[in-house]
Amino acid sequence: MINFSGLWGERAGLSAAGKASYLRSNLSGSLYLALLEVIRSDKVQDDIRRLLTPLTFDRKALLVFVSAFIVSSLGFRFEINDWQTFFKIDSIRRIIRNYSEQFANFMSVSGDDLSPRSGLLSSHILKNFADDSDIVHCLYTLYAAAAEAEDYDSYLADLRVELMRYGAIEPMLSEANKHPMIMSYYNQIRSVRDTVNNSDYWLQVGIASTSYDDLDGAQIAFDNAYSRERKKKEPRLRRIDNYYSRFEMKKAVAEIDSDKAFKLFYDANVRLTKQIFEDNNRHYPFKTSRQFVGVAARHFDKWDDDQKNQFLDMMRDVRQRAIRYRETKGDTSPDVGFLIKETAALLARLRAEGSA
User: What is the DSSP letter of 99?
Assistant: First the structure.
């Protein structure tokens, strides 16, 4: 495919064996990475730019395509009837008629199904060609429509959940505007139906705020998440606990008062160690425990001997738990391995400093 399309670029002169070796060595034999290389090639970039340019003069058509790229990047496929939930059918028919080349290259129409041809291409276009404000506008439009229809359409209910998830929307936006655009989106959807009372909504706001070191905003969001979740007959707090512990670790690093920082760290660590051996922990305890280094760098030398000893004991304990987890679960996750390696290095450094 790459050879036939003339997309090898400066590697076009390589032999067939050389090209195969490049795919194996540089791209780890990954079809995903090979396709990403194709998409990033100058020829494909120029073609994408040429095809998208006419859409910049037709905002309604542009928003339809951006919405389709969003849905595709999230792994959803919709029928033409679903698109009528978001846009009037006359608009869809007009766009198909007026932008036949764009549809031929970007979209796949099979029976009633209407979806972009590639989720990878969709993600790339959103990240590199679409305007952030247009993406946020489309995210809000999709979220509002999905929320209105979720009571009778489970597929749209799933879409609404995914459109709320920070990890799903974060990759779509450019680095320069990411934080303000994400918070703008969350502020906009808060008024949609009962979103403001949804504990998971507040959890996602807390995750986003923590990621961008807005610790005051994160505290407000987590307080709301806990309050709303605890009102349920069967509250499920574990997921909030995971992210709140990560927030507390960050807060401990930022805290000026070392005694307060120790308490934040202690509470977060106790909460996390309880979850390490749960089968569905998704490595959150290990990811968060990597904050040991930041906490130690900021506060260790200011703690009294009792606090230092407790910190070292907790670090040894979480390291041993990680080793047991890897051995008993057969888990080779980089999160687990990195924690084991990093805590060993930190323990050695603190021991060396203590004996100096």
Answer: T
Instruction: Return the beta strands (E) in 259-351 as ranges.
Output: none
Closest CA to 275 of 264, 284, 265: 284
Closest by CA position to 40, among listed 123, 109, 103, 105 = 123
Mean pLDDT, rounded, of the chain: 81
Contact 136, 129 (CB under 8 A): no
Residue pair 260/217 in contact by the 8 Å Cβ criterion: no
| Residues listed for the chain | 356
pLDDT tens, 191-217?
999 999 999 999 999 999 999 999 999
Cα dist from 228 to 198, 236, 238, 241, whole Å: 7, 11, 14, 14
Distance (Å, whole) CA 332 – CA 234 = 33
Cα dist from 27 to 19, 20, 23, 35, 41, whole Å? 11, 10, 5, 10, 15
The answer to whether residues 150 and 82 touch, using CB atoms and an 8 Å cutoff, is: no
Instruction: Work out whether the CA dihedral 207, 212, 215, 220 comes out positive or negative.
Output: negative
Dihedral sign from CA coordinates of 43, 44, 45, 49: positive
Question: What is the residue type of 227?
Answer: S
What is the layout of strands, in order, in the sheet containing 113-116?
Answer: 78-79, 113-116, 107-110
**Tokens standing for residue 141:** 């439009």
Cα 216 from Cα 260, distance rounded (Å): 16
212-234 pLDDT, tens digit each:
999 999 999 999 999 999 999 99
* Residues 31, 36: Cα–Cα separation, whole Å: 8
CA distance 237 to 243: 10
What's the pLDDT score for residue 350? 82
Helix (H, G, I), strand (E, B) or coil at 235: coil
Strand (E) or helix (H) holding 335:
helix 334-355
Say how far apart CA 129 and CA 52 lie, in whole Å: 8
> Do residues 200 and 241 touch, judged by C-beta distance below 8 A?
no
Query: Distance (Å, rounded) from C-alpha 207 to C-alpha 247?
Result: 8
> Directed axis angle between helix 305-329 and helix 334-355, to 10°?
150
Main-chain phi, psi angles of 114, to 5 degrees:
-135, 105
